[in-house]
From TrEMBL:
GO terms for molecular function: 3'-5' DNA helicase activity; ATP binding; DNA binding; hydrolase activity. This is Helicase. The lineage of its organism: Bacteria, Bacillati, Actinomycetota, Actinomycetes, Micrococcales. One of its GO terms (biological process) is recombinational repair. It holds the Pfam family AAA_19. It comes from Luteipulveratus halotolerans. Residues 201-603 form the UvrD-like helicase ATP-binding domain. PANTHER family: DNA 3'-5' HELICASE, UVRD / RECB / PCRA DNA HELICASE FAMILY MEMBER.
Length: 739
């Protein structure tokens, strides 16, 4: 390791001179950006901003390019610079020294945004621009005119150090080469609570996937820690750069396994200057409702599999509880009697051509027709149109339709599945008794806890697509509804009131509620229309159930896709069915594939242990090469069940001394209650977490508790244990509990 990397007097003078040289350039960049910021204010003050919204927008951009590069403008220079400076590592992170055959030497600086000086000379090139590609693509075998690639390590605007990679066998005499290479430096450092961007050290094979064609479906596969997630996120930033108009207006959706995952990655894109991307966990894809709970494996399997669609189809066509069974009334002096059987026929007929929540008019029409058939033999004096008018205007008919065909929230249909009798009816010939019970119990659990599970959300989406959105009520009806609600405010736990006059149905919330009732919590807020995106990025794609593929697919029908996964880490047990649903989501879009084979996360000693475990049961697992050795092997200890809390506490203490960053105690449900207190050892640094929630995450060190139980409790069995064993970057302790 190089001496200059440690603070203090040990920096050799030639390194200090290089740092000072780079500092001078960085200073120039910041002062130019400050000027650019002032110019933006001027330009806006002069009213040029008008051009933004009309068709002269392009010309306006060109005009401003004369002042400073467009990218800097996109960043609203001053404002964005301030936020970049505050939160992230340096704006300028790289330098290329090139030697072209004909043109001689050239120096290019690479950064998060492009900046030019007064003479329009580039001071920094955006990392995504073609002129920056050699920074990532050059290798000693194919140097692309690069002599030296340098990574600048900065904090705010201060250059702390440099790391060089030489692309030629020997450096020219006038060129100083510093450090062991930036990649190793980046990999050995402490992991924070959140993923960092890798913009300074993207490797060539990663760069190829990042800059690949935006069309169709890009599949990125590779074993644990191979950078799939981070590459996919940089690809999202690249797509925004290369076709901002399309992707910013159409939107990019990033879907990951859990909210812990979205919290973990949420800073990567902003650190690259992009904050227009929508991040969602699988339990959060449907607007208006969230599911975070994890189901028991049997229930998760039933809910994820496509057979559930037929169950939902039966449920969604059924009568809501308490719906009237017949219509009896007098219209124009004639008795109308529509009994249960006839009403069911009408229901079936209407639903053949209409979604329930959009069928109100069709229902009234069909009821009117049926009534007309009944009364026609007895009326000589009335024509059909007149009868239908009177039927439709009849108050009793109106009241009947309101009850018999009331708007149905898709979540209500799921809650009907908590009733054993209904579940039996809907699942007959489709599910085994055990599966039907698992389904019924999981919905009863939702009603008990007031929380949806992650798997439920895909079902909400499916039923929502069947029923159509609940329509707004006409204005005059809303007032009535609102008053009724406001009368009982305290009963509902209302904390704040803002009467907005646009309240409709049980959603579109104009006041905040904190309902004590579990059912009410489950139905809070309105389900809105599935939004379509221009690009959909799915991480941990191997975990999506068929129903989840359908849910995500609805949001990407016209999109291009980036799909990231590793089959060996799968927690979804029925691979073939998921593949079918995934293919359906992609349709006939063309595909390109990239494979990552270097594990950048785990020290080799840790990964060897994990690889051995997965190979025993999944011989064809995609095993990457771990590039970093620490000489420290995982500690594997056998612990009696009674001593598990002490052992976990002790192991965590030792690891806290050995690493600087986060330590995770990964424990199956069976032990978690006993281990909660371990997090108190170092709040913020230690967390106790279930194996499924570690997907996509990493820590400096982990304590993996009871591997056998992790395998037993997880729907993906050994594959989920493999996930747990590949989360530690530097140290791992495994506590085995003999059965
Ligand atoms: N070129 C790189 N430079 C520096 N760090 C890198 C590079 N590529 C990957 N990494 C680091 O390697 C770690 C693993 O990356 P990432 O989480 O994207 O892998 P993954 O393939 O998605 O893993 P998993 O499938 O196990 O969730 C991260 O800390 C990431 O920052």
């Amino acid at each position: 390791m190089t001496a200059h990397r440690t603070a203090g007097p040990v920096v050799p003078p030639e390194v200090a001179a290089e740092v000072a040289l780079e500092q001078a350039h960085v200073d120039k960049v910041y002062s130019e950006l400050a000027k650019a910021g002032r110019r933006v204010e001027l330009v806006e003050a002069e009213g040029l901003a008008r051009g933004r919204t009309d068709r002269t927008g392009v010309a306006r951009d060109e005009e401003i390019t004369g002042l400073f590069e467009r990218d800097a403008l996109m960043f609203s220079a001053g404002k964005r610079r301030a936020s970049l400076e505050q939160q992230y590592e340096g704006l300028v992170f790289g330098r290329l020294d090139l030697d072209h055959d004909k043109r001689g030497r050239e120096v290019r600086y690479i950064g998060r945004i492009g900046v030019r000086d007064d003479d329009y000379e580039p001071l920094v090139i955006d990392w995504r621009a073609p002129a920056a590609s050699a920074f990532y693509q050059a290798t000693p075998v194919e140097p692309m005119d690069v002599l030296r690639r340098r990574v600048l390590r900065c904090r705010d605007a201060v250059v702390l150090g440099v790391e060089d990679d030489l692309m030629v066998a020997e450096a020219p005499d006038d060129m100083v080469v510093v450090g062991d290479g930036a990649l190793m430096a980046a990999l050995t450092r402490t992991r924070g609570a959140q993923m960092r961007d890798i913009v300074a050290t993207i490797q060539r094979h990663q760069d190829e996937a990042i800059r690949a064609s935006s069309r169709g479906v890009t599949e990125i596969t590779g074993g644990p820690g191979t950078g799939k997630t981070v590459v996919a996120l940089h690809r999202a930033a690249y797509l925004l750069y290369s076709d901002r108009r399309r992707y910013e207006s159409g939107g990019i959706l990033v879907v990951g396994p859990s909210s812990a995952y979205t919290a973990y990655i949420e800073r990567v894109l902003p650190s690259l200057g992009e904050d227009t991307v929508t991040l969602r966990s699988l339990g959060d894809v449907v607007d208006g409702t969230t599911g975070a709970r994890l189901d028991e494996p049997e229930a998760a399997r039933v809910k994820g599999s496509l057979t559930i669609r037929r169950v939902l189809s039966r449920a969604a066509r059924d009568l809501p509880p308490e719906a009237p069974q017949q219509l009896r009334t007098m219209v124009a002096g004639h008795p109308v009697r529509l009994d249960r059987q006839l009403l069911q026929q009408i229901r079936r007929r209407v639903l053949r051509h209409h979604q329930h929540n959009l069928a109100h008019d069709a229902v009234v029409e069909a009821l009117g027709e049926a009534a007309w058939v009944q009364v026609r033999p007895h009326v000589a004096s009335m024509e059909k149109p007149e009868f239908l008018d009177r039927f439709e205007d009849h108050l009793e008919v109106e009241a009947f339709v309101q009850d018999w065909w009331r708007p149905i929230d898709p979540r209500e249909v799921l809650l009907w599945l908590a009733e054993p009798a209904r579940v039996r009816r809907y699942t007959q010939d489709l599910l085994s008794d055990a599966d039907a019970d698992a389904l019924q119990q999981s919905m009863a659990e939702a009603l008990r806890t007031g929380e949806w599970s992650a798997a439920d959300i895909a079902l909400v989406d499916d039923v929502s697509a069947r029923l159509g959105l609940v329509q707004d009520k006409p204005r005059e009806e809303r007032g009535f509804y609102q008053i009724e609600e406001l009368d009982n405010l305290s009963d509902y736990g209302v904390t704040e009131v803002e009467v907005a006059g646009s309240r409709s149905q049980a959603a579109d919330v104009t006041y905040e509620r904190n309902p004590a009732d579990a059912r009410e919590r489950l139905l809070l807020a309105r389900i809105s229309k599935a939004e379509e995106y221009a690009h959909v990025l799915v991480d941990e794609a191997q975990d999506l159930s068929p129903m989840q593929w359908r849910m995500v697919g609805r949001r990407g029908r016209y999109a291009s896709w980036t799909v990231v996964g590793d089959a060996a880490q799968s927690s979804w047990p029925v691979e073939a069915e998921a593949l079918e649903a995934r293919n359906e989501a992609f349709g006939s879009k063309q595909r390109q594939r990239f494979h990552m084979s270097t594990n950048y996360r785990n020290a080799r000693e840790i990964f060897d242990y994990a690889a051995e475990v997965i190979r025993r049961e999944v011989p064809d697992a995609d095993i990457p090469d771990a590039v970093r050795e620490t000489g420290v092997h995982p500690v594997v200890t056998s612990v009696a069940p009674d001593s598990i809390a002490d052992a976990a506490q002790e192991a965590t203490k030792l690891l806290l001394d050995e690493v600087q960053g986060a330590v995770a105690v990964v424990a199956p449900a069976r032990w978690r209650d006993r281990l909660g207190h371990v997090a108190d050892l170092a709040p913020g640094r230690v967390m106790v977490i279930d194996p499924m929630s570690t997907k996509g995450l990493e820590y400096d060190a982990t304590v993996v508790v009871d591997p056998t139980e992790i395998t037993r409790e997880s729907p993906g069995g050994i594959r989920v244990l493999y996930v747990a064993l590949t989360r530690a970057a530097h140290r791992m302790t495994v506590l085995e509990v003999p059965s």
